[in-house]
Amino acid sequence: MASNIGMMDSAYFVGRNEILTWINNRLQLNLTRIEEAASGAVQCQMMDMTYPGVVPMHKVNFDAKTEYDMIQNYKVLQDVFNKLKIEKHVEVNRLVKGRPLDNLEFLQWLKRYCDSVNGGIMNENYNPVERRIKGGKDRSSKGTLKTSKSLQSNNMSGDPVGLSKVSGPKQGRGGGANSSEIETLSREITELKLSVSHLEKERDFYFAKLRDIELLCQTPELEDLPMAVAIKKILYAADAKESALEEAQEYLYQAMNDGEADDEDEA
């Protein structure tokens, strides 16, 4: 079963954009960043979608903001894993920090697992919005309930949420944009889509390199070396602060000095 997915499995080459689209379409959500799934509520519903009724949704808090509340969601998830005999250790302490790399990796694994059950075919009677109401608080906006039927029809046709309704400029009865304006806007939209696609490919390219560096630094034989520790300090910096590099350099310099001192003592 997919509970034993290796790191080189194709599951870990699924991009952020594909993961988010898959989750949004299946669960009728509107996630724009991987970190938005760090609370564990989305993962609980992914399992509820795969095994309807197995997850006690009344215990899932979709409005979890604190680490304490997030951990409670992951406890629910781990209990479900245990009940289904899924041998997967959940790195809760890392996931609740909202680090994109950690959360993407876990979502990649979870998507692969869900796809492996019944060929990824979801029960057509499963209503994600209704199931979320059984949880703590629905993480989506109040308007979700009002538009759930239209969202469901869009998702059934494979159309990303809401895109079919904003594909072009609207025209009123009293006259709208002329054909040349429409043509100009269409060209601009096409150019923007191409630009976004290029940026996403470039981002994924560098993300893959960072992931390779992270895996290398996590190798048991290397992870305690000063250089590996210094690199991880930069990778795992909580924000984009400039001091991350300085802290890593200071740590490396100190470790090298300590090593030289030890060599002198031995001599």
Automatic annotation (TrEMBL):
Keyword Cell division: yes
PROSITE patterns named among the record's database cross-references: CH, EB1_C
Keyword Cytoplasm in record: yes
A Pfam match: EB1
InterPro entries named among the record's database cross-references: CH_dom (IPR001715), CH_dom_sf (IPR036872), EB1_C (IPR004953), EB1_C_sf (IPR036133), MAPRE (IPR027328)
Record keywords: Cell cycle, Cell division, Cytoplasm, Cytoskeleton, Microtubule, Mitosis
Subcellular location: Cytoplasm, Cytoskeleton, Phragmoplast; Cytoplasm, Cytoskeleton, Spindle pole
Comp. bias (Basic and acidic residues): 129-141
Gene3D superfamilies: 1.20.5.1430, Calponin-like domain
Comp. bias regions, Low complexity: 142-153
Region (Disordered): 129-182
Gene Ontology molecular function: microtubule plus-end binding
GO cellular component: cortical microtubule, transverse to long axis; cytoplasmic microtubule; microtubule organizing center; microtubule plus-end; phragmoplast; spindle midzone; spindle pole
Single Gene Ontology BP annotation: thigmotropism
Chief place where the protein resides: cytoplasm
Residue ranges annotated for the EB1 C-terminal domain, each copy included: 174-244
Calponin-homology (CH) domain location: 13-115
Family assignment from sequence similarity: Belongs to the MAPRE family.
The protein's name: Protein ATEB1 homolog 2
Biological source species: Manihot esculenta (Cassava)
